[in-house]
């Protein structure tokens, strides 16, 4: 007789929470290190987007938005792995457009190439931490990635 692996919804929800909370902590710590590195490489310390009160909420919002998008694709697509394989890099590149506009217009004081590069690396960090976490938190039909 074949066994069926059915997990209790509370256990699945708890696991999902733990995985996403751990991803949030890792992403915030790594983005702190990116901000520190950008300042060490010449970004102005007073450039607000590289300060924790600014980048921490944006890191968490990025992770949450990514998980919402991931969940929508997994639930609605017949081939979520194929969709996500294209969608994730496209969204990552599109997420950098505001950073490039910032570099071009310098609408935030103390903007520099190093500061904007730091912001762009933060986008990569959120993606690099988020994707494995999303796969663990919502693994249905995406194991082929």
From TrEMBL:
Q: Does the keyword DNA damage apply?
A: no
Report the source organism.
Kribbella speibonae
Source taxon at top rank: Bacteria
One Pfam family per UniProt: DUF6069
Q: What is this protein called?
A: Uncharacterized protein
Which keywords does UniProt give here?
Membrane, Transmembrane, Transmembrane helix
Where exactly are the transmembrane stretches of this chain? 17-42, 54-74, 86-108, 114-137
């Amino acid at each position: 007789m074949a066994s069926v692996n059915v997990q209790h919804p509370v256990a699945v929800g708890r696991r999902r929470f733990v995985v996403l909370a751990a991803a949030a902590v890792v992403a915030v710590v790594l983005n702190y290190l990116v901000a520190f590195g950008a300042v060490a490489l010449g970004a102005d310390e007073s450039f607000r987007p590289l300060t924790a009160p600014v980048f921490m909420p944006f890191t968490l919002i990025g992770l949450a938005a990514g998980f919402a998008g991931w969940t929508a694709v997994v639930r609605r697509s017949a081939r979520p792995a194929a969709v996500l394989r294209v969608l994730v890099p496209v969204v990552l590149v599109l997420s950098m457009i505001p950073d490039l506009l910032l570099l071009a217009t310098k609408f935030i004081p103390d903007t520099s190439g190093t500061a904007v590069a730091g912001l762009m690396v933060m986008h990569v960090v959120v993606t690099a931490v988020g994707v494995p976490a999303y796969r663990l938190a919502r693994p249905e039909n995406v194991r082929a990635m």
